[in-house]
């Protein structure tokens, strides 16, 4: 990554908690995102990463905890206040088809946020739409087409153009490429990277796939069963993962060098993720952890450390 974060604390979350029925989907998560920074949130399905994305982008309200944008508490905003915040906080989802109305043209989809926020005249908005389509490398004539006439990659570009229409400061991208084929996937990731470089956009990239986030992010946050278990500078965390869960996830990611690849050991996790409604005592990962010790059943490790933090008793006090 070439871009250096420019300032601190554009989007911050503290002690976020959210339950669905008896399941604590998010259980005390802190998160910080600076201008121009891309943070990857990685974890298996059920880790709570999508819920964290929904909470920090204010698509859902936490049961407790706080979300701040530029130092302003936005946790409980509603109505007009929330609408204003939406200009700065945009989301791109996994399935662009689900987020685009099939009965409306591409031009309508991209221009709608501008119309909703009363930006420009109809003619000025049409010009802005054409400019936005060019920015995501689509021919502006596609404005007349319908989502069903486009490829998956083109639809995701339209969804990104729509998200960029109001020039947000934060983009939350939730599995933005996992519905796409491999070559389209890297095109879309490169597009997100280019937009970030152009605009100083802060991006939260949520993914189940370490391979997607490792080269694209400044920092990585690893989640397991509703909690952050490791967090740090992306290059450092990938080079020296501390949590056994992170090590297992990374061991499944192939490296391009065939000699190094042959010498690598894949860490296969035991068993399934435990029932999130009934997590185990002590460390939640202990049932699957290759390094579990007897006291892991008694003590719930806390996230600790300096710039590279980990929640594991193996690293306690280090
Ligand atoms: Fe494994 Fe124990 Fe560390 Fe949990 S605290 S990750 S069970 S070693």
Draw up the topology in text.
Layout: E1 11-20, E2 23-33, E3 38-42, H1 49-56, E4 64-69, E5 72-73, H2 79-88, E6 89-92, H3 96-99, H4 106-116, H5 122-135, H6 152-164, E7 170-174, H7 182-199, E8 202-207, H8 210-214, E9 219-224, E10 227-233, H9 234-239, H10 244-251, H11 258-262, E11 304-305, E12 309-310
Helix pairs in contact: 4-5, 4-6, 5-6, 6-7
The chain binds iron/sulfur cluster (SF4).
Summarize the structure.
The protein is an alpha/beta fold and 318 residues long. It has helices at 49-56, 79-88, 96-99, 106-116, 122-135, 152-164, 182-199, 210-214, 234-239, 244-251, 258-262, and strands spanning 11-20, 23-33, 38-42, 64-69, 72-73, 89-92, 170-174, 202-207, 219-224, 227-233, 304-305, 309-310.
């Amino acid at each position: 990554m070439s871009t250096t974060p420019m300032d601190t604390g554009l989007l911050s979350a503290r002690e976020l908690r959210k339950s669905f029925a008896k399941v604590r989907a998010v259980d005390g998560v802190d998160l910080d995102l600076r201008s121009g920074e891309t943070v990857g949130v990685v974890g298996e399905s059920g880790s709570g990463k999508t819920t964290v994305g929904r909470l920090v982008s204010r698509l859902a309200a936490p049961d407790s905890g706080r979300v701040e944008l530029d130092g302003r508490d936005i946790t409980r905003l509603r109505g007009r206040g929330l609408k204003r915040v939406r200009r700065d906080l945009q989301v791109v989802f996994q399935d662009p088809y689900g987020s685009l109305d099939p009965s409306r043209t591409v031009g309508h989809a991209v221009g709608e946020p501008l119309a909703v926020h009363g930006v420009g005249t109809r003619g000025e908005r049409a010009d802005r739409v054409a400019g936005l389509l060019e920015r995501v490398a689509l021919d502006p004539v596609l404005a007349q087409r319908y989502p069903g006439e486009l490829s998956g990659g083109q639809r995701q570009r339209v969804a990104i153009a729509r998200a960029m229409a109001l020039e947000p400061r934060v983009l939350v991208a939730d599995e933005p490429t996992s519905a796409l084929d491999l070559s389209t996937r890297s095109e879309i990731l490169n597009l997100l990277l280019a937009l970030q470089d152009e605009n100083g956009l802060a991006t939260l990239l949520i993914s189940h796939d370490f391979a997607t986030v490792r080269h694209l992010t400044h920092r990585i946050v690893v989640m397991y069963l509703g909690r952050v278990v490791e967090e740090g500078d992306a290059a450092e965390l990938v080079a020296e993962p501390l949590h056994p869960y992170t090590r297992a996830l990374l061991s499944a990611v192939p490296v391009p060098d065939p000699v190094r690849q042959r010498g690598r050991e894949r860490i296969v996790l035991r068993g399934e993720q435990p029932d999130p409604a009934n997590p185990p005592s002590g460390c939640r990962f202990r049932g699957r952890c290759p390094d579990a010790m007897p006291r892991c059943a008694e003590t719930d490790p806390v996230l600790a450390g300096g710039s590279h933090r980990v929640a594991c008793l193996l690293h306690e006090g280090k």
